[in-house]
Amino acid sequence: MRNLFAFVALFVLVITLSGCGAAAQPSPTPEPTDAPTLEPTTAPAVGDAERGHQIFTKGLNESPPCTSCHMAADVNFGFSLGPNLVGIAQRAATRVEGLDAAAYIHQSILDPHSYVVAGYRDIMYPDYSKYFDEQDLTDLMAFLMTL
Ligand code: HEC
Hints:
CATH class of the largest domain: Mainly Alpha
CATH superfamily of the largest domain: Cytochrome c-like domain
Number of strands: 0
Number of helices: 5
Structural class: mainly alpha
CATH architecture of the largest domain: Orthogonal Bundle
Helix content: 25-40%
Shape: globular
Bound molecules: heme C
Largest sheet: none
Distance between the termini: 65 Å
Strand content: under 5%
CATH topology of the largest domain: Cytochrome Bc1 Complex, Chain D, domain 2
């Protein structure tokens, strides 16, 4: 009986609301308790710098780690094939006109041929797009932005 009353009340409320669009105020309609409201939550892409660090140093899905060619420390010791990535967050925004730091880094990883840093050869590993998904890139980016 209670359920029926609730249903009727809800019905009347819906009719009333749809009948006059001007009263578009948030109504304190109680959630129907028997209707599951568990919608899949689509989490926004948030970068996990800790995981990005892992990918940077260990690689992912059999792809070579970034550290096989890049240093990311403030000390430039020894020899490496690619530029030291310390300060990349600031530098990245100035590399290619029209690309902000995130867009440039994204492109540098997925399509390294498209821009070759002066003084370096076009030898960066070209196939990361086959191994990384967007979340991997977002995590990697979060890490690179801390350097
Ligand atoms: C086989 C060696 C190699 C590997 C592995 C490699 N890189 Fe590179 N990377 C280079 C070289 C060489 C350059 C400079 C030439 C160019 O711009 O393509 C470069 C350039 C870059 C740049 C642009 C730097 C700047 O100062 O503008 C970024 C960013 C970058 N790499 C990120 C990465 C990340 C992240 C990874 C791992 C997912 C990675 N690289 C793996 C060799 C490599």
